[in-house]
Amino acid sequence: MPAPTTGQDPNGAIVAAWRAESARLVGALTRMTRDLALAEDLAQDALVAALEQWPATGIPDNPSAWLMTTAKRRAVDHFRRAAVLRRKVTELAHAGRESETEMPDLDAQVDHIEDDVLRLIFLSCHPSLTPESRAALTLRLVGGLTTAEIARGFLVPESTMAQRISRAKKTLASRRAEFELPTGAARTARLDDVMAVVYLIFNEGYAATSGADWMRPDLAHEAMRLARMLAALAPDDVEVLGLQALLEIQGSRIPARLDSDGTPVLLEAQDRTLWDQLLIRRGLAALSRAEAIAERGAPVGRYFLQASIAAQHARAARAEDTNWRRIAALYDVLASAAPGPVVEVNRAVAHGRAFGPDAGLVILDALGEDALGDSPLVPSVRGDLLERAGRRDEARAAFTEAVARTRNDGERAILRRRAGALG
Description:
By secondary structure, the chain is mainly alpha-helical. Helices cover 68% and strands 1% of the residues.
């Protein structure tokens, strides 16, 4: 979305412009300078200049162009100073011409803004980085979030997050990571990493792994924005469209996931009139585009299939209208396409709803209690299925075990409530 160009609040306009344009700005500057750290510094300089000048001079007609022009000027000044320094050093040692031709002609470069953003996303998800560093760097460079905002989202001190981001940048520099789109198998592998990072960010926002908050909506909404951006940059990729659809549809439920007292509300008890219909329409539209491409023979994967499952919930006006048999069939396909313990747990839920709790318990028993380590997911789902089967004492014990495992206060409250209702 373009940044607003009018309004009475210059600081608000600056924040909006930065959030909307920072990825394009840093991406373009990285392409021009071939130096990620320098590009971010130049972009930050432009932001500081806006903070100093816009309150006095007014908001420019085109904030993004103003930021880009200012950053380019700072880049020219930087290279000129560097060239002068190199020339003086060279004169002390020996005459040479090469140093005088190293300043790039920034104004003459052709802008490929969207390609720059895509390159920046791929760079943020370089395979030399850990998944945590990829997520942090993506939010910093592509999402435009401050270090403090990212630290709050992941419940770590700001200094810890600053060190993580700094180490990630140093790693990219030491590995001489190229600001170019990978090709062939490397691109496919990296695209999977990019989508995995966006999905990780969304999941942490949608259902926080720890802390007092049941959700962190800012992270979830930022992940949705990144997914839309990725879909705009790769509009013919079934899985990218599937990821956008999945996040939009699931994100639509955020307004209904807490009641008026701030108590978490599970899916089947949610007031579906509170679901964000705009996000649902966006998600279903992205899924429809993905289905059209898939019909032409493109392979589908985990994000497309999960989006198809989420769409079944979105299309049901009431919880009792949910087509659980269709969802169970989709989970069976997902288990073949992307096998894993989390998929199996969700498949157990779907089969438990579609064919009775015993069918779900068969799948869960085959998985094992410790399939997800100390995660509360397996015992909480087991408790739900046992409760539906009328095995109240066993259900209470399972919920109690899940209470001991969870690190999220909101989830703990739900599990304690369910265990208490059985005892």
